[in-house]
Amino acid sequence: MDSLIRRAVDDLAASEYAIALTGAGMSTESGIPDFRGPSGIWTTNRKAEAQAYRRYELFLNDARTYWEEMLGMRGTCGMFYEEIEKAAPNAGHHALAELEALGVLKCVITQNIDGLHRKAGSKRVLEYHGSVHALRCISCRSRHARDDVCLDVLPPRCICGAALKYDVVHFNEAIPSDVMKESEAEVLRCDLMIICGTSAVVHPFASLPGLARSRPYRSLPNSGIPGHEKGVTIIEVNDEPTPLTHGGVSDCFIRGKTGDLLPAIVEEAKRARSALATEHDPLLRD
Ligand code: NAD
């Protein structure tokens, strides 16, 4: 394990543009259950999975019932959102924020809807599947802070008149084009990707590592896409192997909890930095 952590630190130190991709596993240690892990919501309750798959259609056909479900007046979805409200970032979230503050990590692209990366202090966060802290209009595409919208009358309405939904991207709903474009630009720019706590089965998010691999080695004339000479390094941190591990997409798989492994990576990176500084500063050497 130690050798895998050292390898990750060496790769991060050698990278010019490292980004993180994260999933529900990042937040299980904050008390928010994932969907498909061994004690995930869907692993233990198949009905909840079926409801989630029809939620977007429900919004389109009956926005009031959709809101009653989301606010916990019916079904089990409200309980999940309540758990998110109570949660605080864990050591894994703080470690990614620290890597960004150290200048190592440039961006986090997350599937999580819980806002915990931002709460932990990460600055550049792309919420690929939206956020529970915002509402979105699918007609004029505007977003509104959830706390600014009155929910006394359901469904809440946008100033354009259309019904608002949670900003969260439900199954069968397209990823909003702004966040999709920005995420793809980050993926095409990075030379290191650290993928944390995702089962990597939900597309198009799960295709992002493959997109990074598809980046050309040299800039394509007039394409606007920069090439990179050495290819992308993909490190995966997860409790269990995923299709990325089995499919050989990941160069390195570190098995365990993100709340343990990411802080260990940060500590090792800081130790390596200060050893390097000592080596280069004649005043600090014997
Ligand atoms: P998932 O439930 O499909 O998979 C979670 C993965 O993380 C599993 O492979 C599991 O083994 C691993 N894992 C669980 N705890 C871990 C830990 N402490 N350390 C390391 N690995 C751990 O999650 P996903 O791939 O993100 O699925 C996609 C959907 O789930 C997304 O659309 C996301 O919005 C939604 N979701 C979000 C939250 C959240 O915002 N916290 C919670 C549940 C589901």
Topology summary:
Blueprint: H1 2-14, E1 18-22, H2 41-44, H3 46-53, H4 55-61, H5 63-70, H6 77-86, H7 91-101, E2 105-110, H8 116-120, E3 125-127, E4 134-137, E5 143-145, E6 164-166, H9 177-189, E7 192-196, H10 208-213, E8 233-238, H11 243-246, E9 252-255, H12 258-280
Parallel strand pairs: 1-2, 1-7, 2-3, 7-8, 8-9
Antiparallel strand pairs: 4-5, 4-6
The chain binds nicotinamide-adenine-dinucleotide.
Nicotinamide-adenine-dinucleotide is lined by residues 23-25, 27-29, 32, 34-37, 40, 111-114, 129, 197-199, 202, 238-240, 242, 257-259.
* CATH class annotation of the domain at 1-31 and 89-128 and 175-286: Alpha Beta
Helix content: 25-40%
The 3D shape can be described as elongated
Mean pLDDT: 90
How many distinct helices?
12
Task: Indicate the CATH topology of the domain at 1-31 and 89-128 and 175-286.
Answer: Rossmann fold
CATH architecture of the domain at 1-31 and 89-128 and 175-286: 3-Layer(aba) Sandwich
Question: Ends: how far apart?
Answer: 32 Å
The string of secondary-structure elements, in order, is HEHHHHHHEHEEEEHEHEHEH
Main pleated-sheet profile: 6 strands, parallel
* Structural class by secondary-structure content: alpha/beta
CATH superfamily of the domain at 1-31 and 89-128 and 175-286: TPP-binding domain
Radius of gyration: 20 Å
Keywords:
286 residues, alpha/beta, Rossmann fold, six-stranded parallel sheet, three-stranded antiparallel sheet, elongated
What does this structure look like?
The chain has 286 residues and is an alpha/beta fold. The chain has a domain of 183 residues: 3-Layer(aba) Sandwich (Rossmann fold), CATH 3.40.50.1220. It has 12 helices and 9 strands. A 6-stranded parallel β-sheet has the order 3-2-1-7-8-9, sandwiched between helices. The protein has a 3-stranded antiparallel β-sheet with strand order 5-4-6. β2, α8 and β3 form a beta-alpha-beta unit. α1 packs across α12. The chain is elongated and about 70 Å long. The site of nicotinamide-adenine-dinucleotide has 28 residues, from α12.
